[in-house]
Structure formats: C-alpha cells, structure tokens
Amino acid sequence: xxxxxxxxxxxxxxxxxxxxxxxxxxxxxxxxxxxxxxxxxxxxxxxxxxxxxxxxxxxxxxxxxxxxxxxxxxxxxxxxxxxxxxxxxxxxxxxxxxxxxxxxxxxxxxxxxxxxxxxxxxxxxxxxxxxxxxxxxxxxxxxxxxxxxxxxxxxxxxxxxxxxxxxxxxxxxxxxxxxxxxxxxxxxxxxxxxxxxxxxxxxxxxxxxxxxxxxxxxxxxxxxxxxxxxxxxxxxxxxxxxxxxxxxxxxxxxxxxxxxxxxxxxxxxxxxxxxxxxxxxxxxxxxxxxxxxxxxxxxxxxxxxxxxxxxxxxxxxxxxxxxxxxxxxxxxxxxxx
Length: 337
Description:
Layout: H1 3-8, H2 11-40, H3 51-68, H4 79-106, H5 112-117, H6 125-128, H7 133-148, H8 151-154, H9 162-175, H10 187-194, H11 196-201, H12 203-215, H13 217-232, H14 247-259, H15 261-268, H16 272-291, H17 302-315, H18 322-335
Helix pairs in contact: 7-13, 10-15, 13-16, 14-15, 14-16, 16-17, 17-18
C-alpha cells in the first residue's frame, strides 16, 4: 500500500468525515423546515381588512400601548386651587344664565293677551268707511271751503260761511215745498210754481245760486252725488248735512222737477248737464219712495226714465259717471216696462 493512501485513511480523517455528514444533514433539515413554514403560512398582508377591523386593531394596539406605558397621574391640586377651580366652574353657569335671562327679557314674547291688546293694523279707507259717509261728508265740506275762497262768491257777502248759509237755505226750501198736484187748475198756481225759488229764498239768494251753478258747474255732479249718498244710506243719518232734513220735502221737490210745468221750466233754464243730473236724482228719490210705499202722488217713472235715457244717450257723454247713470236707468226701465 502507498504511504499517501495510508495517510488519507488515518483515524483522524475518518473522524472528521463522520462530523461533517451529520452537520450537513441537520442544515438540510432546517432549510427544508424553514421553507415549508414560509410556504404554508397565510399572507395576512394580502387579505382585505375592513374598516371596523382596522379600527378595532388600532384601538387594541393603543390600549396595549397604554397598558405597557401608563400615563403619569395628574398632580394633586391643593385645597386652595381646588376651591378656586370650583368657584370658576360655578361662576360660568351663573354668567351664562344671566346672559340667557337678559336675552329673554329683550326678546318680545307675543302672547294671546298682548295680541288682544295690540293696536289694530291700519285699514284702508274703504274698509274704515264702507258706506262712504265720511268721504261724502268730507267732500261736501271741502266744496264749501273752496267756495268761501272764491272771489266771485265773496261779492255776495254771505255770512258766516257758505256751509251754514246753504244748510239754512235748504231747510227753508224743504219746509215750503211747491204745489205738485192741481198745478194746471189755474194760472195762478202755474205762476207761483214758476217763481217758487224766488218767492221762498229771495232775489239775492236766487242770483247767488245761479252764480254758483254757472261757476261751479264741474263740481255740481259730485256735490249732488255726495248728498244722495248721505240721504240714501241708513248709516249716514247722523251726518250734520242730512240729520235735520225733511224727507217728505225732498220727495215733493222730486215730483216738482219731474211732473210740473214750473219745475221743468227751472231745469230747462239751466245747462244740459246740470239738468240731466238733477233729473236723475229726482228719479232716484221717487224710486226710493216707491220702495218705501211713500209715493203719495203716484208719480209714474216710466216717461221720465225713457226721456232721460234718450237725452243721456245723445248728450250725456260729458258727464263724469254717464255709464253708471245709464246702467241704473236701464234697470229702472226694465222694472217699469
């Protein structure tokens, strides 16, 4: 045998080989075990984690961190600092309550009692004066006030004012009405009716009334409308312009203008507009007497209504309320057909 081969197979070499082989086997076993563990373990990072799980995990981790490292305890307050803190805490609600009370006092609280005692809202003129009495009275007063300021009217030396003078003059005329029935029985009665206003009021008043009718022609229509409103509405009986007027005397004058020669002559001496307006309100007064069973003279309205309709359709366009007049007259014509 070769001495080199004997050296290789010496007991020391065999002992070294016997240690290497088990070590290699152990390393292989460990490597295989580690590989199998890594391969078989589930990958938690790839699984979708819901929001609630994350929240729970984060809270649990925070709790664990707090358990491991608890926060330091707050320093103990002294009795003085504790008392001041309690006083401050007690003062804050008091200030808040004071502010709330002040706010409540400033804010107006509408209760049933305050609503009942509250002043009523402003009403429109039509709602405050449904019958038109106040408006009619005011407009008549304005007419007389304006008349007192006219230069031509001052020349008549009317005192104390046109309002008092005309009110007294109207009452005097109503107390002495003209004769309506039996006018054509004799010439004397016709002449008396023709000069009726001259006999009752006198020359100066006749001239004054003629001057007012000519100068205030545009205001006569409204003036008569306001007087009729006060006369026809039951709510206006207390007005100073109609409170003491003789209603029977008004009926007599309405019959005078519609059914006597003297009355018709007075109207035809006036302008056409004044004549139509006076005739219209005379018809309404007799119609009112018919409704109240006071038409003692039995005046028929049919001829007067037909004649006035014809006249207004021809020359009534200059009137301020011609359409209203004609509508009323057509209704009366249909009623007395």
